[in-house]
């Protein structure tokens, strides 16, 4: 067995660090008990069942004084050796009762199982099997080298009701065509214009809800706050819709949240009862979901019709960096491009972008604030940067690029709290991982959580240390720089298309908040535990007290020079970063679309090739790379 049982993590310490010592005692005890049981081998199913079953018979026969029994015992012993050898080439298997895992964030027991079974193992619940992958090389194989052999599997089934054939669940030809159509919409000019809007929305929230809280002294639930901020931003970015959820609720906002929560509910519910049409109408939550989808579809149809009318009225020439000042949304780009698609597909695309770009960023900001609440020294370093570079204005793209420590804080937050913590795939063909064969049809969980917290891949894996990625003027860490041990935005051709968008959004929000307010965990509120849906949520919110920052410097340094504080956060920051090839500094922060957009733009032509070679080279401006990058490269 490719056991990783050799790993020695003090398990109590891990559980505490997962929950940050903050889940309530009963939950902590349950988690500890389960952890003990997993590590004691209760769930182990190793070796050969046939060999185990025949062992008592063999022992009995071996006692036969006549000799024939001894002979049979010898034959059985030989067969047993063969069975054991065959079993060794089978995937290590953990068996268990699904109820053990339901009710707690699924990635926590998966981490404990990883410590016992290693980088690849099968998890069996009755007839249902999952293969859990926690190895950078195997992950690269699934996401990049052999990406053709995998589909989104269960994910497509779960998300069908809300995303249909949108980019996240889609596979095959639909995915290729839609990725090629959508990626160019996130070009350089688009992202620059979005950055301005991020600042507007962040300031709107800071001067509204947070200012009120600071004045009243009432704590704010920051997970909800970030969720609303991200919804306002993504609504403007995708279809130029003013949710303004930071200041009010309306039926469309309620409908969007109903659909989002339903998607999360379905991803963890044990029985997909909603597939039986009568239950879709009989069960109240399913009825609410149907009603919500109706509201969303009608709203989207209205927005599409309005945007179509605007495109006709403008009659503007479409170029690859097309951007309308009146409506710089992705929807406008798609309609102006003359993209011929059904309105159902367009709705699926918009809904997918809305969900993909909302929950994830909100979760990243939530956990970043949680980490910062425990690391005032990091807050000071962020402030020093923001004061020097941005001051009170809205950050520009160029300024965001200079906020290098702030960016590292987000990078480190995404390592400790990856969103989503698990990537889902289904093997379409057999695939081989060292001595193990994963058969076609297997459902696979790539545990990003395990990769990001692996003691084999990271020194002090559970510690918050933004300096771990090397010097601040080095490349922004991503799956390539870290050799697939770090996957904040996935990797390969299905890598997130909104990575740059999301990083800029998160940095902007953080810069605006840190410049203006002091935040502290609110005493007397429920402690912060984790629960999971598509992303990692808090159990009962992240409640924080907000106070105006006492020592805001009047203005940024006028010469624009940045004096970066260099003191490391902890002694651990001097620990060696994971050995991985680094990409050139120039490729650190790309403008515009995802670093994997080139791969998508040229999806059929580059199949089987490193999808990043084009994108990374493209940023250095090489002609060859531009050719590889296709439309997206040209756009940049
Ligand atoms: C911090 C915020 C974000 C995080 C952590 C994140 C993370 C990810 C990850 C890990 C994947 C890969 C999923 C997989 O391989 O199964 C992904 C895919 C995707 N993301 Fe993001 N994302 C973020 C923001 C965004 C934004 C803002 C958008 C849109 C504007 C977006 C759109 C998408 C889409 C469309 C895909 C599917 C790509 C494909 O399959 O071709 N994401 N994201």
Question: Can you put this structure into words, describing what you see?
Answer:
The chain has 636 residues and is α+β, with helices and mostly antiparallel strands. The chain has helices spanning 11-19, 25-40, 49-62, 68-89, 98-101, 107-117, 136-145, 154-163, 172-182, 188-216, 222-239, 251-268, 277-282, 284-314, 330-336, 343-356, 359-373, 376-389, 397-402, 404-416, 448-452, 499-516, 597-601, 611-620, 623-635, and strands at residues 93-95, 120-125, 128-133, 150-151, 220-221, 422-427, 431-433, 436-438, 443-447, 517-521, 530-532, 536-538, 543-548. Strand 7 and strand 8 form a beta hairpin. The model is unreliable at 1-23, 558-593 and 595-636 (pLDDT under 50). It binds protoporphyrin IX containing FE. InterPro entries: Cyt_P450, Cyt_P450_CS, Cyt_P450_E_grp-I, Cyt_P450_sf, Cytochrome_P450_Monoox.
């Amino acid at each position: 067995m490719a056991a990783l049982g050799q790993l020695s993590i003090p398990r109590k310490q891990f559980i505490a660090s997962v929950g940050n010592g903050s889940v309530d005692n009963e939950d902590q005890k349950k988690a500890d008990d389960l952890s003990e049981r997993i590590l004691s081998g209760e769930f182990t199913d190793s070796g050969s069942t046939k060999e185990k079953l025949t062992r008592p018979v063999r022992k009995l026969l071996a006692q036969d004084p006549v000799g024939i029994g001894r002979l049979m015992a010898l034959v059985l012993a030989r067969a047993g050796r063969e069975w054991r050898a065959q079993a060794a080439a089978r995937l290590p298997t953990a068996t268990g009762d699904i109820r053990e895992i339901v009710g707690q964030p699924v990635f926590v027991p998966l981490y404990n199982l990883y410590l016992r079974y290693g980088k690849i193992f099968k998890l069996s619940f009755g007839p249902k099997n999952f293969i859990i992958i926690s190895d950078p090389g195997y992950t690269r194989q699934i996401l990049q080298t052999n990406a053709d052999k995998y589909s989104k599997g269960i994910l497509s089934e779960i998300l069908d009701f809300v995303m249909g054939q949108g980019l996240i669940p889609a596979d095959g030809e639909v995915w290729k065509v839609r990725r090629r159509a959508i990626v160019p919409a996130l070009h350089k000019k688009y992202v620059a214009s979005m950055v301005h809007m991020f600042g507007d929305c962040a300031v709107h929230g800071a001067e509204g809800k947070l200012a009120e809280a600071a004045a009243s002294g009432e704590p704010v639930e920051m997970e909800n706050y970030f969720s609303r901020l991200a919804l306002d931003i993504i609504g403007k970015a995708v279809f130029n819709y003013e949710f303004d959820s930071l200041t009010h609720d309306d039926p469309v906002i309620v409908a969007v949240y109903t659909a989002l929560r339903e998607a999360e509910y379905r991803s963890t519910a044990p029985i997909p009862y909603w597939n039986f049409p009568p239950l879709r109408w009989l069960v109240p939550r399913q009825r609410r979901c149907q009603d919500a989808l109706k509201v969303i579809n009608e709203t989207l149809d209205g927005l599409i019709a309005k945007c179509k009318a605007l495109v006709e009225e403008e009659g503007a020439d479409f170029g690859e960096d097309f951007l309308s000042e009146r409506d710089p949304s992705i929807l406008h780009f798609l309609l102006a491009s003359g993209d011929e698609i059904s309105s159902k597909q367009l709705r699926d695309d918009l809904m997918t972008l809305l969900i993909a770009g909302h929950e994830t960023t909100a979760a990243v900001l939530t956990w970043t604030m949680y980490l910062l609440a425990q690391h005032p020294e990091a807050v000071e370093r962020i402030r020093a940067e923001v004061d020097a570079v941005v001051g009170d204005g809205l950050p520009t793209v160029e300024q965001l690029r200079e906020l290098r420590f702030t960016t590292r804080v987000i990078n480190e937050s995404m390592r400790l709290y990856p969103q989503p913590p698990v990537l889902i795939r289904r093997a379409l063909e057999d695939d081989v991982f060292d001595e193990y064969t994963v058969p076609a049809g297997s459902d696979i969980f790539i545990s990003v959580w395990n990769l990001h917290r692996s003691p084999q891949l990271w020194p002090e894996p559970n510690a918050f240390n933004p300096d771990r990625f090397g010097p601040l003027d080095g490349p922004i860490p991503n799956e390539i720089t870290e050799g697939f041990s770090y996957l904040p935005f996935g990797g390969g051709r299905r890598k997130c298309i909104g990575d740059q968008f999301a990083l800029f959004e998160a940095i902007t929000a953080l810069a605006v908040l840190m410049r203006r307010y002091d935040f502290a965990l609110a005493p007397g509120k429920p402690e912060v535990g984790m629960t999971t849906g598509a992303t990692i949520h808090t159990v009962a919110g992240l409640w924080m007290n907000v106070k105006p920052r006492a020592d805001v410097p009047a203005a940024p340094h006028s010469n624009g020079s940045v004096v970066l504080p260099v003191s490391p956060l902890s002694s651990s920051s001097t620990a060696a970063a994971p050995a991985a090839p680094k990409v050139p500094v120039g490729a650190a922060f790309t403008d515009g679309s995802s670093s994997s957009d080139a791969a998508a733009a040229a999806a059929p032509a580059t199949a089987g090739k490193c999808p990043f070679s084009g994108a990374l080279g493209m940023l250095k401006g090489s002609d060859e790379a531009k050719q590889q990058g296709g439309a997206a490269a040209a756009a940049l």
